């Protein structure tokens, strides 16, 4: 119950007899705690009350089961109209948390569950932090991923707490640490199990103990060596992202090294200023990517479907990994293949994945392996909520399998194919009720790729599609609804792009130059390396299906395939591979506009997918291409990119890739 006399909507202040005060955040009308303007204003008024009657100590916690605090209110940030508004927003948090840091009584943040962005900045403004050792506890300053900076004191306090090397690593990548690591690196003072958390908080906040000091090397790096550390960090960032594409990480380094972590102290004309960041299209585009991601997450919502058992048929590259990801996420999986011997390698791969994901926690690894049941006879199909077929790409085999499955499966079970290139309608033709078949198209490597395409065939049942999206969310994937069409969305745009890259190589441009140009644009991997990774045999098949312009595949590609050089998996393709990495020679000089030339077919194919209704709208196309291929997030996606550049207007005829467009022709020579 709130201290009498206070009329707060979001915060509850409770005082114990010995003078210890508990302040809990439970943001009204929301399942998660976000630091909206209203929440921050109320916190100010809580501090007023505490100033008037100071407690012996203060513990700040969350009343929400979802976690501590998820960060600032992104909606409010998205609606900022000017750089001046951005400055006001930053000043609000900076000033309030400075005030919290300066109070005379000891303060402690009791962190259970997510503690992100502004939430961690609030926690850093407290004298102590206790983290609760649970799988959901994670601490991060992910602002950089939205193209902004941790301006509410994070850039000032995190380096002081854990040293600048670690702090910059966290702030420049946005990655999170779990409870144990938070304690290990000195971010948290204690890491405790949930049952003792309140007592631990009581004891620590009343202890009067000093925070553990930084090791001397970290103190040097935070002091006299600061500019050297900043130079090194700048070099590292430059290897990953160009300043004109991503100004925020550079600004973070500058704000920390030149302005004591105070974003407000940077003058407007400085390249690290809030004004520069606010004016950058990247900031808008990264917010756009965030909203696109939320939209994809929404597809699984509001459907009454809680799958517990998945039956996967085909324990090869895809089926084995789909089964592993499902088991990792807590589902029971029966994995069927023709023999136990074919299932065994998938289980061995899964064990490695679980080791990595559960960071060596033997019990979790054991439980996940126990959930993955080899099932050569296919008994699991009778009980499963979701059945996923991932056998080899053969229409007759798939039809035979599904007509058998239709008889065995529960009437409400999802029947899904992972096919990449067969028409869903052709497979569904074997069913008494063709509406039951849908596609759930995963990407390789399944554990790494965030997207799945949920494919609607001509007759697919709408409820089954919604349930498939809910299933995708259950295993933490982003579902993209697509219509059944060659290559769906992602392969339809990747195919022509990879082909154009190979044509460039055919013309004598070094693969290294091709890849460097696209990596510089912001792709996670160059297209030639991607072809080698996917496999040259698959590229030939996909090229035939997707080329669109009827042109023959590049000679070099065919020659490599007939020599058995299929790329990474055989140790040689366009590159020689060793230890899972391509050996690169010198890139040489690339012709001007090389990236534009290779991107043009991808952009055109994306437009075509929108026009032909493969996805419902341009935003979904952008979401799919970003999360399915890693397409440069700073651009906001291929549709947004061409719209903002204005030279490839949406709505132009794009059914055939226009390889004779003057700009492209000129670039190619
Ligand atoms: P794969 O060749 O690695 O594995 C296929 C497995 O299915 C083999 O272990 C085989 O023994 C088993 N199998 C074949 N017929 C069977 C039957 N009647 N009953 C039980 N098991 C049977 O194939 P991969 O690459 O995993 O592809 C599987 C499916 O996933 C294909 O439809 C493919 O188009 C699709 N796909 C493949 C991707 C890739 O990158 N490899 C990406 C996305 C989809």
UniProtKB/TrEMBL annotation:
The keyword Manganese is annotated on this UniProt entry: no
Superkingdom, natural source: Bacteria
Domain 3-hydroxyacyl-CoA dehydrogenase C-terminal residues, every copy: 487-577
UniProt name for this protein: Crotonase
Domain 3-hydroxyacyl-CoA dehydrogenase NAD binding: 309-483
Taxonomic lineage: Bacteria, Pseudomonadati, Pseudomonadota, Betaproteobacteria, Rhodocyclales
Signal peptide location: none
GO molecular function: enoyl-CoA hydratase activity; long-chain (3S)-3-hydroxyacyl-CoA dehydrogenase (NAD+) activity; NAD+ binding
Organism: Parazoarcus communis
One GO BP annotation of this record: fatty acid beta-oxidation
Pfam family, one: 3HCDH
Listed Gene3D superfamilies: 2-enoyl-CoA Hydratase, Chain A, domain 1 (3.90.226.10), N-(1-d-carboxylethyl)-l-norvaline Dehydrogenase, domain 2 (1.10.1040.10), NAD(P)-binding Rossmann-like Domain (3.40.50.720)
Keywords: Fatty acid metabolism, Lipid degradation, Lipid metabolism, Lyase, Multifunctional enzyme, NAD, Oxidoreductase
Pathway note: Lipid metabolism; fatty acid beta-oxidation
Catalytic activity: a (3S)-3-hydroxyacyl-CoA + NAD(+) = a 3-oxoacyl-CoA + NADH + H(+)
Family of this protein: In the central section; belongs to the 3-hydroxyacyl-CoA dehydrogenase family.
Keyword Lipid metabolism: yes
CDD domains (alphabetical): crotonase-like (cd06558)
């Amino acid at each position: 119950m709130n201290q009498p006399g206070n009329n707060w909507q979001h915060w509850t202040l409770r005082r114990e007899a010995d003078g210890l005060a508990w302040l809990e955040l439970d943001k009204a009308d929301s399942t998660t705690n976000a630091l909206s303007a209203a929440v921050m204003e109320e916190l100010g008024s809580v501090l007023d009350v505490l100033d008037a009657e100071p407690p012996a100590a203060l513990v700040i916690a969350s009343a929400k089961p979802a976690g501590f605090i998820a960060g600032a209110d992104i909606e409010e940030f998205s609606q900022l109209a000017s750089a001046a508004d951005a400055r006001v927003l930053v000043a609000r948090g900076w000033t309030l948390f400075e005030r919290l840091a300066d109070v005379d009584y000891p303060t402690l943040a009791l962190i259970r569950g997510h503690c992100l962005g502004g939430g961690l900045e609030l926690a850093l403004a407290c004298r102590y932090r206790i983290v609760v050792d649970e799988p959901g506890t994670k601490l991060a300053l992910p602002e950089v991923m939205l193209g902004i900076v941790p301006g509410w004191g994070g850039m000032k306090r995190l380096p002081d707490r854990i040293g600048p090397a670690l702090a910059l690593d966290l702030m420049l990548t946005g990655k999170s640490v779990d409870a144990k690591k938070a304690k290990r690196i000195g971010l948290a003072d204690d890491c405790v199990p949930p049952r003792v958390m309140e007592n631990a908080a009581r004891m620590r906040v009343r202890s009067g103990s000093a925070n553990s000091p930084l090791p001397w090397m970290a103190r040097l790096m935070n002091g006299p060596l600061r500019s050297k550390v900043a130079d090194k960090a700048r070099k590292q960032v430059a290897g990953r992202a160009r300043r004109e594409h991503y100004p925020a990480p550079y600004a973070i380094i500058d704000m920390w090294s030149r302005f004591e972590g105070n974003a407000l102290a940077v003058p407007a004309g400085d390249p690290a200023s809030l004004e520069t960041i606010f004016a950058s299209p990247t900031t808008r585009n990264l917010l756009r990517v965030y909203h696109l991601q939320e939209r994809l997450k929404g597809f699984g919502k509001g459907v009454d479907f809680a799958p517990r058992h998945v039956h996967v048929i085909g324990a090869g590259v895809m089926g084995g990994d789909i089964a592993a990801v499902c088991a990792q996420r807590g589902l029971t999986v029966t994995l069927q293949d023709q023999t136990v011997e074919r299932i065994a390698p998938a289980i061995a791969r899964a064990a490695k994945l679980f080791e990595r994901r559960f960071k060596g926690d033997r019990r979790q690894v054991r439980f996940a392996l126990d959930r993955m049941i080899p099932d050569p006879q296919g008994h699991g199909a009778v009980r499963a909520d979701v059945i996923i077929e991932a056998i080899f790409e053969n229409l007759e085999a798939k039809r035979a399998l599904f007509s058998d499955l239709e008889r065995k499966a529960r009437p409400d079970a999802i029947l899904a194919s992972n096919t990449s290139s067969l028409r869903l309608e052709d497979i569904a033709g074997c069913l008494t009720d063709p509406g039951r078949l849908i596609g759930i198209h995963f990407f390789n490597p399944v554990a790494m790729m965030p997207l799945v395409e949920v494919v609607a065939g001509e007759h697919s049942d709408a409820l089954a599609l919604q349930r498939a999206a809910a299933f995708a969310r259950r295993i933490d994937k982003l579902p993209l609804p697509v219509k059944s069409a060659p290559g769906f969305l992602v392969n339809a745009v990747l195919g022509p792009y990879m082909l154009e890259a190979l044509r460039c190589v055919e013309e004598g441009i070094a693969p290294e130059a091709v890849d460097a140009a696209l990596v510089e644009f912001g792709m996670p991997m160059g297209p030639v390396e991607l072809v080698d990774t996917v496999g040259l045999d698959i590229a030939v098949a996909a090229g035939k299906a997707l080329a669109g312009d009827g042109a023959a595949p590049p000679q070099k590609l065919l020659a490599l395939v007939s020599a058995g050089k299929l790329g990474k998996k055989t140790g040689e393709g366009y590159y020689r591979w060793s230890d899972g990495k391509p050996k690169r020679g010198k890139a040489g000089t690339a012709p001007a506009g090389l990236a534009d030339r290779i991107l043009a077919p991808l952009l055109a194919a994306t437009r075509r997918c929108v026009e032909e209704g493969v996805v419902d709208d341009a935003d979904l196309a952008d979401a799919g291409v970003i999360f399915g291929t890693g397409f440069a997030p700073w651009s906001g996606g291929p549709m947004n990119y061409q719209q903002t550049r204005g030279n490839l207007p949406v709505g132009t005829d794009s059914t055939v890739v226009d390889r004779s467009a003057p700009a492209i022709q000129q670039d190619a020579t």
